[in-house]
Design brief:
424 residues; alpha+beta; 2 domains; 4-stranded antiparallel beta sheet; 14 strands
Length: 424
C-alpha cells in the first residue's frame, strides 16, 4: 500500500508506463515571463503517479535544468539544489574524467561531441511525451508545438525512442528493463528485490540509513532529479565482435553475449542458470555471494558492474525510464541506434554518478576491467574480460567501446506543487 501523495509526484518516478513510443522535447526559455506561461500551460498535462483505471493514450513528464530554473526566476545558488545538478551534465562530463572518478564522457563521448541541442548548454526544459502509438504521439506533439508557440519559448530539438523490437529488448539483443527498485511507500512491489527507502527517489523523505534528502526551497517535497541521456550503441561492432570472438575462442556466440551482460538474451541470470536460458528461474531473486571467483557471472559483465546486489549498496540504486531509438537492426545500414531516457534518483552524485564512475568505470568492483557493454573502453583502459566456460578460463580481448554518449542533461523533476510555484 502507498502512503505517498501520488497526485503530487510525477508518474514515471514511481512506475514505468510501458507506453512503447516516446518523444523528448528540448526547450529554451528566452525570458522568465514566457517560461512561466509555458509551465502554467503544461502543468495540467503532467501525468502523476495516481493509479489510473484505464491506461491513457499519452503521458507527459517534465524536467528543468539548473539554467532553466534560473531562467524562470529561481535563485539557483540559494535554493538548496545539489552541487552536481547546478554544475550540470556538460560541466560534470568535462570535470570528472580521471581514473578515480570517471563518468566516461571522454573521446567521442565528450560533451563537445554531443548532439547540437544537448551539447549547446541552451536546454532549459525537457518535456517527455510517452504514447501508445504513433498517431497518439503525433497528435499530442501538435498540441505541444502550439503551446510552445503560444508561450513564446523556443523548441531546440526532439528525440524519439520506440520500443520497436518488442519484449522490451535493446539493440544488443537483450531483454531489458528487468531490474527496477521497489520504492518504500510507492506503488505495488513488482519483484523479489528488497524495498528501497523512499528518499532515494523522492525528495523530502528519509533515504537509506535514515539520511535526510530535502528538496529545494521552492519545492521541499515530492520532487526528484534525473540524468537524461542519449546513448549510442555500436550494434554493428558488437555483433561483429561476437562472431569473431566465437570463432577465435571456440565458444558459442550466445555464450559470449550472455557473459558480457550477465544474463542470457531472454533475461535469465547466469548466476541462477549458467549453462543455458531457463524461463523458470526468477529474474531478480539472486546475488553474487556464492559466485566467486565469478565462474558463472563475470566481474566485468554489465549487470554485475551496474548493480552490486547487497544490502550495503541500496543507497546507489537508480530508476531507469529509457528504451531504444533507431530502427530494428539491419547490418551495415548506416542507421544510428541506441538508448534514450531518464535515470531518476534524489542524489545525482551518490546514485547516478557513483554507479557510472565507481562501478561501471571505476576500480571499486575490479581494478583490471570496466563494464564490457557500457564502460569507457579506450587506449588508456583497454578491454579485459575474463569468463569461465566448461571449467576453462578464457580471457577475451580485442573489443572497443560499444556505448558512447550522444547527449545529456541533469534535470530537476518538480512535484505538481513545485510546477505550480514555477508557473507563478
Amino acid at each position: 500500500m502507498t502512503n505517498l501523495p501520488l497526485d503530487q509526484i510525477q508518474g514515471f518516478v514511481l512506475r514505468g508506463y510501458s507506453h512503447p513510443r516516446a518523444r523528448h522535447f528540448t526547450i529554451h526559455v528566452p525570458a522568465a515571463t514566457n517560461g512561466k506561461a509555458f509551465v502554467a500551460a503544461i502543468t495540467p498535462l503532467i501525468t502523476t503517479a495516481t493509479i489510473w483505471s484505464e491506461k491513457p493514450l499519452v503521458c507527459f513528464n517534465v524536467g528543468f535544468t539548473a539554467d532553466g530554473l534560473q531562467a524562470l526566476g529561481v535563485d539557483v545558488a540559494h535554493a538548496n539544489l545539489s552541487t552536481e545538478f547546478v554544475e550540470g551534465a556538460i560541466q560534470r562530463g568535462f570535470k570528472y574524467t580521471g581514473d578515480n572518478y570517471d563518468l566516461g564522457d571522454t573521446g567521442d563521448s565528450a560533451p563537445n561531441h554531443w548532439i547540437l541541442d544537448l551539447g549547446s548548454g541552451d536546454v532549459h526544459i525537457i518535456l517527455s511525451l510517452y504514447a501508445m502509438n504513433p498517431n497518439a504521439r503525433d497528435t499530442a506533439t501538435a498540441a505541444v508545438l502550439q503551446m510552445i508557440r503560444d508561450g513564446g519559448v523556443k523548441l531546440l530539438g526532439t528525440h524519439d525512442s520506440d520500443d520497436v523490437l518488442g519484449d522490451s529488448r535493446v539493440h544488443f539483443g537483450y531483454h531489458d528493463g528487468i531490474s527496477q527498485p521497489n520504492i518504500a511507500g510507492g506503488t505495488a512491489k513488482t519483484d523479489d528485490q528488497p524495498v528501497v527507502a523512499t528518499g532515494e527517489f523522492v525528495l523530502g523523505y528519509p533515504a537509506e540509513a535514515n539520511v535526510p534528502r530535502p528538496g529545494p526551497t521552492f519545492d521541499p517535497q515530492n520532487g526528484s532529479y534525473s540524468a537524461f541521456r542519449v546513448l549510442k550503441q555500436d550494434v554493428d561492432g558488437f555483433f561483429a565482435f561476437l562472431a569473431k570472438a566465437a570463432s577465435q575462442y571456440e565458444l558459442p556466440q550466445e555464450v559470449i553475449q550472455a557473459k558480457f551482460c550477465g544474463r542470457w538474451a531472454d533475461g535469465t541470470p547466469l548466476v541462477l542458470s549458467a549453462d543455458h536460458p531457463d524461463p523458470g528461474v526468477s529474474l531478480n531473486d539472486f546475488d553474487y555471494s556464492e559466485d566467486f571467483p565469478a565462474r558463472k557471472c563475470p566481474i566485468a559483465s554489465h549487470i554485475r558492474r551496474s548493480q552490486r546486489r547487497n544490502e550495503d549498496t541500496q543507497q546507489h540504486r537508480i530508476l531507469r525510464r529509457a528504451f531504444p531509438y533507431g530502427p530494428p537492426y539491419v547490418p551495415q545500414d548506416g542507421q544510428e541506434r541506441g538508448l534514450i531516457g531518464h535515470f531518476i534518483c534524489t542524489s545525482l552524485q551518490q546514485q547516478y554518478e557513483f554507479v557510472i564512475s565507481q562501478w561501471v568505470n571505476g576500480t571499486t568492483v575490479d581494478a583490471t576491467s570496466r563494464d564490457a557493454l557500457i564502460g569507457a573502453i579506450d587506449a588508456d583502459h583497454p578491454p579485459s574480460f575474463k569468463l569461465y566456460w566448461n571449467d576453462a578460463r578464457v580471457k577475451v580481448e580485442g573489443f572497443g567501446r560499444f556505448t558512447t554518449t550522444r547527449g545529456g542533461a541533469y534535470c530537476y523533476l518538480p512535484s505538481i506543487a513545485g510546477l505550480g510555484a514555477l508557473g507563478r
